[in-house]
Amino acid sequence: MDAKADRIKDNEAPPEKLVGALVSGLSVLRYLAASGSPVGVTRIARELELNASTCFNLLKTLVHEGLVTFDDSTKTYAIGIGLVELARGALEQSSFVRMLRPHLEAIADGHRVTATLWQRSSKERVTLVDLADTSTATRVHMSVGQRLPMYLAALGRCMAAYSDLTEDQLREKIGNLRWENAPSFEEYYAEVLQVRDRGYSVDNGNYVKGVTTVSAPVVDANNRAIMAISAVGFSAQFNKQAIRQLGEELHERAKTISRALSGRIRT
Question: Distance between CA 149 and CA 142 in Å, rounded?
Answer without folding.
Answer: 15
